Amino acid sequence: MSIKTVLPTLFLGVIFNCYAQNNEVQIRVDSLSPQVYMLTGKGGNIGIYIGETKVFMIDDQFDHLSAKIKKSIASLTDKPISTLFNTHMHGDHSGGNANFNTKKVTLVAHDNVRKRIKKNQKEKLDKQEIPKEKYDKMLPEVTFSDNITFFDGDETIMAFHVHNAHTDGDSMVYFLKNNVLHMGDTYFSGRYPFIDLKSGGSIHGYINAIKKALLLINDNTKIIPGHGRPSNKAELQNYVLLLEDILKKIQYAINSGSSLEEVKANTSLTQTYDARYGNGFISPEKIRETYYKSLTQLKK
Description:
The protein is of the alpha/beta class. 42% of the residues lie in helices and 21% in strands. It contains 11 helices and 12 strands. It has helices at 3-24, 66-74, 91-94, 97-100, 111-126, 132-138, 203-216, 233-255, 260-265, 271-277, 284-297, and strands at residues 28-31, 36-40, 46-50, 55-58, 81-85, 106-110, 142-144, 147-152, 155-161, 171-175, 180-188, 222-227. The protein has a 7-stranded mixed β-sheet. Strands 8-9-10-11-12 form a 5-stranded mixed β-sheet, with helices on one face. α7 (203-216) packs antiparallel against α8 and α8 packs across α11 (284-297). The protein is globular and about 60 Å long.
């Protein structure tokens, strides 16, 4: 078979695989309150609040899933989206920004989210991978440093920044009347968390973010995690306890002179939780590595 024959065949194979993967993704809808829904597809969980006349949307997953997500939202309401909120900068939460960011939609995020999305998209623009129009529509138009509040009828929507947790630009969004909290990737329900150390995340900041959430919510609060199934306060309390327990064990190992490779190989440090939380994107070895790097960076 000649190269001229092989290359088109490979190309068509890639296109077919991408189409098949996209076609297989189903958008699941969970009703968490009379007005708030969680949409699960591929990527970060989406929050949808249906207000009196408009929709408040949290995160938008990947670019290629936007049509399916729009169809799912349309099955819930014919009210227009007016606000799109990014909990942080990662593409599985903000990749669809340009597809949802119309003249009637305001894109909101923390200051650092805009900075990081702008940097990433500018590199694509410079390489001519995206047009200028998409670059502009990917960027949040309204940003804040600590917190911002939205009002819709008798609902108060509070968004607040948590420092150096999953990244350096994480925000949580709390619907006061509906008693629903969207935590973004500061919470991976039922699995070990991904902490993006290169984007300003840290284990101490991650734990502190969860503790801040626990101060706000009550036993009846419904929680939308960045990934995983809907959760609650009891599960979140258990989650922070396991993170703190692993922290103590790995900090002790570091203080005792263990190297990175030794910590990665020491299964006893996380074995209590591995069966339940170690089957996701972050493996037990990877979470031990993350802890080690985060804790040793503090000494530099």
